[in-house]
Amino acid sequence: MGQRHDELLKRIRKLVKQNQDLLDENEKLKKAVAEISDQNELMKLQLKESRVALKEGLPPEEEQRGRKYEMATVLFAYIGGFKNLKDEAQSEAIIDQLDEVFIEFDRILKKYQIQKIKTIGDTYMAAGGIPVKNITNPVEVVIAALEMNQYLNKMQEGTEKPYWKMSLGIHTGPVTATVSGLRKISYDIKGDTVNIVHRMQGIGDKGKILISVMTYELIKEFFICEYYGKMPVKYKGDLEMFVVSGIRQEFSRDGLGIFPNNLFDVKFKLIQFNDIQELILDKLESELPENLYYHNVKHTVDVVTEVELIGWAEGLDDEGILLLKTAALFHDAGHTVSYDDHEYQGTQLVRETLPGYGYSKQQINKICDIIMATKLPPDPSDIYEKIICDSDLDYLGRSDMIPVSNTLYRELKERNRIGTLNDWNKLQLKFISGHSYFTKTARSLREVNKQKQIERIRKLITED
């Protein structure tokens, strides 16, 4: 019996050891997978930045030193309060409170896609416009600063003697950013812009948001700003500064000048459109088939320009112009996927892209409806669809109608969709003769010249 008990104990010990070995091995594998995953993420990031570097003509060694951003908006905040501490117990509680403040600041930055750079003690630095370049970063950083200030004030409501008083500086200019870290990717930035914003924070009044004149010029349409004074900057002269007290009343939904309303959002998106346009035009340049002689980048730019022109003339508001321009930008982007159902493919690209730029579901659905209205034969149901249909076929009433028409013929010919040029001219004559512009603006701009183009085409047709 004793021998059997000993053998059983040996087997148990052996199983326990084997189990522990498996657990240890599993732990090693998990660490290895985590390291590989982190390395992969960093490689993806570096590859992405390298592609940008190649596109911008940067040499590899310059990319390794750091990537240059010509327009970043840097925020530097100092949250004073430690000098009011009286004992160790109070110190621990206040430090915990500061951690809560920084956690909320991080959440606000994430909301506006602003990159946190670092926190050192009671200082906090962030930058808009990195790692992804954008034109809207000054507005995003200022509105984030307003929310940060408001949170700090609200947190201390009812406190007899508030501990925290934040001084905050914001400046827009060029920076050089370097990336580091495997498990957690982080950025560091340097340059005159960083030095200037650090000095601005140091001279600003507590509770005030101080911005440079560079930032002011880019955000003044949206925010209430007051002149603050000048600060000498080495080799650059005096730098004018302003204090931001809130969002302009017409753009604020809360009456406090902190949170933007729909009108703010629309005007912001009209600026942001430039970033989306750069993205989509780059996509068209690199991904459209080479034998798209008509449905190319030039055509897309023409339609974007024309919908804005007709839209304003037809009395549309800012949101209407935004929806039209966005639809025009994407209306032929589906050609990167398919020729025959490119309108539908364009709407799919819209649904993939625009949520990342804050477009609502309602706005996205409307943009998709506008795009689908360009499918021939045109049958628009509202003013938006009428405008894009007129803009898409604007060339019919232009003086360059025939050479533009010939590029479409060449495109169709290479796809075996049309016979001779004479066949094409007959088809064009039939189509144009039965075509009418839908908007009053297009009829007044193009209808007379369209009739001249009909006569020109008639003269080009030879009878069989």
What structural class is derived from the secondary structure elements?
Answer: alpha+beta
* Distinct helical segment count: 15
pLDDT averaged over residues? 84
CATH superfamily of the largest domain: Hypothetical protein af1432
Query: How far apart lie the N and C ends?
Result: 112 Å
* Proportion in β-strands: 15-25%
Count structural domains.
Answer: 3
The Rg value, from CA coordinates, equals 30 Å
SSE pattern, N- to C-terminal: HHEHEEHEEHEHEEHHHHHHHHH
Low-confidence stretches: 36-64
| Overall body shape | elongated
CATH class of the largest domain: Mainly Alpha
Count of DSSP strands: 8
Helix content: 55-70%
Instruction: Just name the CATH architecture of the largest domain.
Output: Orthogonal Bundle
What is the CATH topology descriptor of the largest domain?
Hypothetical protein af1432
For the report, how would you describe the main beta sheet? 8 strands, mixed
Question: Which helices and strands appear, and what pairs or packs with what?
Answer:
Layout: H1 2-55, H2 60-65, E1 67-80, H3 88-111, E2 115-120, E3 123-128, H4 137-155, E4 165-180, E5 186-190, H5 192-203, E6 209-212, H6 213-219, E7 223-233, E8 237-247, H7 262-287, H8 297-313, H9 318-330, H10 342-353, H11 361-372, H12 383-392, H13 401-413, H14 421-433, H15 440-460
Parallel strand pairs: 4-6
Antiparallel strand pairs: 1-3, 1-4, 2-3, 4-5, 6-8, 7-8
Helix pairs in contact: 3-4, 7-9, 8-9, 8-12, 9-11, 9-12, 10-11, 14-15
